[in-house]
Amino acid sequence: MRLTREVMLDRMAASDPAFNGRFIVGVHSTGIYCLPSCRARRPKPENVRFYDSIEAAREAGLRACKKCRPDDWAQGIDADRDRLAAVLATMWESPGRFRGIEDLAREAVMSPSVFFTAVRNQYQSTPGALLTSARVRQARRLLQSGGEVGAVGQEVGFESSSAYYENFGRRTGMPPAAYQRLAGRTDFAVELPDDFAPTPLFHYLGRDPNSLTERLTDEGVDLSVWAGEVPCRISLSVSGQSMRVCIDADRPVDVFAVHHQVSRLLGLEQDPRAFEEHVRGLGYGRLIEGREGMRIPLTPTPFDALVWCIVGQQVNLPFAFALRRRLSEKMAIPVGAGMFAPPTAEWLATRELEEFVPLQYSRRKAEYLVGAAQSVVEGRLDLETLSRAPRSEIEKTLLAQRGIGPWAANYLMMRALGSPDCVPVGDTGITTALGRFFDVARPGPEETLRLLEPFRPYRSYACYHLWQTLHKSD
């Protein structure tokens, strides 16, 4: 997408790090060039010119800004970013080392306010939310390995038992002791948030009535998933304020893996209340009417979203569904009830391109799919680890993968990695819904960004609600 001056001025005013590398800001009144994310005093628009590269800005006689240090950024050097990333990497592995946000900020050599802003800008979250997620993640690991339930809360850094049980329960749907007892079970129940809206979830999972991996039933929905190395079919059904999960497999499975995938589908790590308050404050409450409490369902695994992005690009939805079904039929691993396991990275990485011809895949789509699978298998594209990286690094890594353009990168960040502020520009559904919602002609890329700008930093939620407006469900 070619950026207009208006879009670049807007992104400069927002100090948007997502546009670093897409253009350079030249301030001719001071003779410097900056990154779009620079937080120095805003120049007057008439004093600003935009350049495609640092070299072009230098040729115009400008020098590098000492605040945002664009030359360092271009060389991959950003001391603040790297120090912040190192601190958060330590936090994810050893959250118990940090009593709170002040400890994290001190480790990063930042004031708490600067630290908060840096995390918000680079990770689309707050330090408190990330630290709590890290504590719960580590608690799950320790409980799986047999850690004493009460001691685990202290070890991961929760300041009290009540904070431990409340946060663990909200993000997993069950108390720590119940979670630890999952091993060996063939069924379990996940407690749903009070405002949880199951109808949109079931509607999403039932979009393809002929799907071999997702199928609506009288009770709820059946899914085929991989629990570690074991393919299985799981049945989800709502019972009161709980989601009942039953596992059907021909041998023992990793129940913790099943629980993790169900938690992703339910969006248990999400809290849509801030977005809903934001939307009402804008006067756009009709966007969420009847869908209050709706989470964005993440795909069971990040790789599932990667496959869908490549399979579904530049084809209509019914044909994309057909292409996806043919992959499962080709791999041919049944899980019962006429359903088949979803394709794995290991299987796709070893396919010959000629095998996709009878499946009606274009050669280019087959190349992208096999190449992406090989990147995952070889560790060059680690989507789980990538989900904890800065937004700019996530986007740069995804765009470096053949077959992943801006639309797919934003879709993956939204549906695979849980990023709350993404816009899959060019998505037909979103542009159609935006036109209807604002009663305007179907917008182009620049107008799409302009219309969605008020919803920042929750544009992923806005996009998902816009998709839902296209099919009013009962």
From TrEMBL:
<dbReference type="GO" id="GO:0005737">
    <property type="term" value="C:cytoplasm"/>
</dbReference>
<keyword id="KW-0489">Methyltransferase</keyword>
<dbReference type="InterPro" id="IPR011257">
    <property type="entry name" value="DNA_glycosylase"/>
</dbReference>
<dbReference type="InterPro" id="IPR010316">
    <property type="entry name" value="AlkA_N"/>
</dbReference>
<dbReference type="GO" id="GO:0008168">
    <property type="term" value="F:methyltransferase activity"/>
</dbReference>
<keyword id="KW-0808">Transferase</keyword>
<dbReference type="GO" id="GO:0032993">
    <property type="term" value="C:protein-DNA complex"/>
</dbReference>
<dbReference type="GO" id="GO:0006285">
    <property type="term" value="P:base-excision repair, AP site formation"/>
</dbReference>
<keyword id="KW-0010">Activator</keyword>
<keyword id="KW-0805">Transcription regulation</keyword>
<dbReference type="InterPro" id="IPR035451">
    <property type="entry name" value="Ada-like_dom_sf"/>
</dbReference>
<dbReference type="GO" id="GO:0008270">
    <property type="term" value="F:zinc ion binding"/>
</dbReference>
<dbReference type="GO" id="GO:0008725">
    <property type="term" value="F:DNA-3-methyladenine glycosylase activity"/>
</dbReference>
<dbReference type="GO" id="GO:0043916">
    <property type="term" value="F:DNA-7-methylguanine glycosylase activity"/>
</dbReference>
<dbReference type="GO" id="GO:0043565">
    <property type="term" value="F:sequence-specific DNA binding"/>
</dbReference>
<dbReference type="InterPro" id="IPR018062">
    <property type="entry name" value="HTH_AraC-typ_CS"/>
</dbReference>
<dbReference type="InterPro" id="IPR003265">
    <property type="entry name" value="HhH-GPD_domain"/>
</dbReference>
<dbReference type="Pfam" id="PF12833">
    <property type="entry name" value="HTH_18"/>
</dbReference>
<keyword id="KW-0238">DNA-binding</keyword>
<keyword id="KW-0234">DNA repair</keyword>
<dbReference type="InterPro" id="IPR023170">
    <property type="entry name" value="HhH_base_excis_C"/>
</dbReference>
<keyword id="KW-0479">Metal-binding</keyword>
<keyword id="KW-0862">Zinc</keyword>
<protein>
    <recommendedName>
        <fullName>DNA-3-methyladenine glycosylase II</fullName>
        <ecNumber>3.2.2.21</ecNumber>
    </recommendedName>
</protein>
<keyword id="KW-0804">Transcription</keyword>
<dbReference type="InterPro" id="IPR051912">
    <property type="entry name" value="Alkylbase_DNA_Glycosylase/TA"/>
</dbReference>
<dbReference type="GO" id="GO:0006307">
    <property type="term" value="P:DNA alkylation repair"/>
</dbReference>
<dbReference type="Pfam" id="PF00730">
    <property type="entry name" value="HhH-GPD"/>
</dbReference>
<dbReference type="InterPro" id="IPR009057">
    <property type="entry name" value="Homeodomain-like_sf"/>
</dbReference>
<dbReference type="GO" id="GO:0032131">
    <property type="term" value="F:alkylated DNA binding"/>
</dbReference>
<dbReference type="InterPro" id="IPR004026">
    <property type="entry name" value="Ada_DNA_repair_Zn-bd"/>
</dbReference>
<dbReference type="Pfam" id="PF02805">
    <property type="entry name" value="Ada_Zn_binding"/>
</dbReference>
<dbReference type="GO" id="GO:0032259">
    <property type="term" value="P:methylation"/>
</dbReference>
<feature type="domain" description="HTH araC/xylS-type">
    <location>
        <begin position="82"/>
        <end position="182"/>
    </location>
</feature>
<keyword id="KW-0227">DNA damage</keyword>
<dbReference type="GO" id="GO:0003700">
    <property type="term" value="F:DNA-binding transcription factor activity"/>
</dbReference>
<dbReference type="InterPro" id="IPR018060">
    <property type="entry name" value="HTH_AraC"/>
</dbReference>
